[in-house]
Amino acid sequence: MIHPERATALFLAALAWNSAFAVSLSLDASTTWADNISRSALAADQTDAFFHDAHLTASHLQPLATGLSLIAEASAGYEVVPRFPQNSAYLGGATAALRKKFGIGAFAPVLVSEIGLQRREARIAGDNSWIASGALRFSQRFTDAWRASISGDWEQHYAAHSTFDVRHHRLFGTLTWDITDRWQLSGGHGRLWGDFDANASWSTWGRALGGLISPVVASYYNTISWEVTNAYGPGWVTYRVTGHSDFWWLELSPALGANTSLPLRYEGSTTVNRAGIKYEQYGWTLGVLHRF
Amino acid sequence: MPRIFLHSPAPVLACLLAFTCHTSRLAAGNVVVIVKDTKGQPVTDAVVSLIPLEASAPAPLHPPVEPVVISQHGEEFDPYVTVVAVGTHVSFPNLDSIRHQVYSLSKTKPFEIPLYGSGTEQSILFDRPGIVALGCNIHDWMSAYLVVVETPHFMKTAGDGVARLAELPAGRYRLDVWHPRLAGESRRDLVVAAADAATQTISVTLKPDRRIRRAPDGAGGGYK
């Protein structure tokens, strides 16, 4: 378990490291109003709540050769849902990325390949996990104001309980418009395939297993991993399903100087699992990104 | 017949030299150029140059012996705009702890300085007139401009939008004004009279600042 004192010590160590080496420290903090944070299909179970998170990242960019750079990052963070504190978690980990620029200048296309390993310490014991990830991102600037990127990433959770052993991959595109030197508008659209966790109240879960929702659902839900986590209330169940999710977002980000931005994001997703159970989620996020 | 006795030629030569310098100074004029935008606000970093139109031979440029410096500090170029005469060497010292890769893709002087760290410094000769847009291949937001002029009479406007050009030989000139955000071109002819101090006020239209944004980008959204 990562404790606040340890996080503070980590922060101070990172500051010291920052002054000693070419390390850039950044803070990413945000508050999200999440509609259907519980990821529930049944309207009666759908629960809305605020979600807060903050991450401190130390990164080092090391140019290796012309057009090739290594970006090493270490980060630590905390996520909390005040209304449902069971869902709080500490996160810490590291990533290494190779950034290849094909040519010289701001308009040269860039390919970034990244691998990462994170530790998640959650209030729900079964959710304590190691998370391995990999990503490939191709980006191209078209003008001083417009750029686009296509990303593919993969994530595997090695959790304490199989319910949280999710594995998925995503493919998405992002378009960014720097309206002025201060205002930026960006949007993205993509799809996730693989496993994800969803939640249901005990009564809904009982009906699903008993075939009262549909025989297809009962047949599928009786084969998957699930456990009582009390994540969104007494008796609530978290279960792992396979399916896909289509997601999109739109983000307006004013810059407050060269090192700070204040992104406001609206996002949504539609998720369907193998049994045809579908739910939607929407969220507003206000964040602050600051490079020290 | 009166006789003039010259005990030594030195006093006469000194008088002749003093007279020559005095008349030369009398034949020189000064021009103060005030550059403003369409809202009447002073424009900083505008390059003002005066090209003689009547000289039978090109004016000698006298590039400095020591290189002009454009440094990289805090992952930015400093200064943002520099003006030099043709034949000037410019050095690009890296004052950051991270390595930089300075380049230009401009036709005036395409070049690339391979990755280099602090304490390393290379200078480049700029031997053709024109605009040189500078960048860093590691940090895309870093940009700067070097204006190479073929005249010894040039200056960059300060924060008050004023450039003072002194000791100009009397005659006709073309006054050029350049700025990274200038829409179109700004030039006019003017006559500099001996012992004159003329003021030229120039209004320019500036395009929006299209520098690449440095502020951090968000990670975007997406189901996880």
> Largest interface, with Cβ-Cβ < 8 Å?
A-B, 57 and 31 residues
What's the level 1 CATH class of chain A?
Answer: Mainly Beta
Average pLDDT taken over every residue of chain A: 91
What share of the residues of chain A does DSSP label as strand, in percent? over 45%
Largest sheet of chain A: 12 strands, antiparallel, barrel
CATH topology descriptor of chain A: Porin
Structural class of chain B: mainly beta
Low-confidence stretches of chain A: none
Unreliable parts of chain B: 1-26
Estimate the global geometry of chain A from the Cα principal axes: globular
Q: Give the neighbour order of strands across the main sheet of chain A.
A: 1-2-3-4-5-6-7-8-9-11-13-14
- What Rg of chain A do the Cα atoms give? 20 Å
Strand order of the largest sheet of chain B: 6-12-11-8-9
What's the CATH H-level homologous superfamily of chain A? monomeric porin ompg
What's the N-to-C terminus distance of chain A?
27 Å
Q: How many domains make up the coordinates of chain A?
A: 1
Give the SSE string of chain A.
Answer: HEEEEEEEEEHHEEEEE
Under CATH, the homologous superfamily of the largest domain in chain B reads: Immunoglobulins
Order of helices and strands of chain B: HEEEEEEEEEEEEEEEEE
Provide the helix percentage of chain B: under 10%
